[in-house]
Design goal:
The complex is a heterodimer. By secondary structure, chain A is mainly β. Chain A has strands at residues 4-6, 11-14, 19-25, 32-38, 44-50, 55-57, 60-65, 70-75, 84-91, 99-101, 105-110. Chain A contains no helices and eleven strands. The N and C termini of chain A lie far apart (37 Å). Chain B is 0% helix and 50% strand. Chain B is globular. The model of chain B has no long low-confidence stretch (mean pLDDT 92). Chain A binds chain B through residues 4, 8, 32, 34, 36, 41-46, 49, 87, 89, 91, 96-104, and chain B through 31, 35, 40-45, 48, 50, 58, 88, 90, 94, 96, 98-105.
């Protein structure tokens, strides 16, 4: 089993739709979690950290389910500009500053 | 503006040549990282450094070397021993919180 797994997609959704991605992780002792956004042929950029209680930033909501070992990202009212690859990133316990990246989920928002 | 600068953006190398990729940051971050990204794969850690004059191997260090003589700089050398060096190389830095800030990346192509 991969340490961090994501559905590669692509998820094709119309503008205005709500879309959700999940990411599963294998190490139950993992301590911190992030969602990064990567545009085509560009560097990843932090979208949001994921907190135990869940957190929201505008149209984006991130949640953590430790019992089932997954994190999720919900995007409401999708915009064309949301089209990108979304990377799930997990900090495995005991690996001091070392983060493990998922392969990413590609989102394509269409008119 | 604070940030991370990678150079060159594009680099072509003949087989058997060593090349060095530059990474400079003015964010005053202690930790710096080098990742490699291949199509359809997650970012893989090559080397990381948490403090000046100290660095550790990541998951795919073979065929690469680094130095950390200054806090601001973490150059990566891709040696001729690296069997498949064509890839997108990303340098990042972070505070202890684990949030990564990436440079724009360097695309290396072996001819």
């Amino acid at each position: 089993r991969k340490e961090v797994e994501q559905d590669p997609g692509p998820f094709n959704v119309p503008e205005g739709a709500t879309v959700a991605f999940n990411c599963t992780y294998s190490n139950s002792a993992s301590q911190s979690f992030f969602w990064y956004r990567q545009d085509c042929r560009k560097e990843p950029k932090l979208l949001m950290s994921v907190y135990s209680s869940g957190n929201e930033d505008g149209r984006f909501t991130a949640q953590l389910n430790r019992a089932s070992q997954y994190i999720s990202l919900l995007i409401r009212d999708s915009k064309l500009s949301d089209s990108a690859t979304y990377l799930c990133v997990v900090n495995m316990a005991g690996t001091a500053s070392k983060l493990t990246f998922g392969t990413g989920t590609r989102l394509q928002v269409t008119l | 503006d604070g940030g991370i600068t990678q150079s060159p953006k594009y680099l072509f190398r003949k087989e058997g040549q060593n090349v060095t990729l530059s990474c400079e940051q003015n964010l005053n971050h202690d930790a710096m990282y080098w990742y490699r990204q291949d199509p359809g794969q997650g970012l893989r850690l090559i080397y990381y450094s948490q403090i000046v004059n100290d660095f550790q191997k990541g998951d795919i260090a073979e065929g690469y070397s680094v130095s950390r003589e200054k806090k601001e700089s973490f150059p990566l050398t891709v040696t001729s021993a690296q069997k498949n060096p064509t890839a997108f190389y990303l340098c990042a830095s972070s505070m202890k919180t684990g949030e990564l800030f990436f440079g724009e990346g360097s695309r290396l192509t072996v001819l």
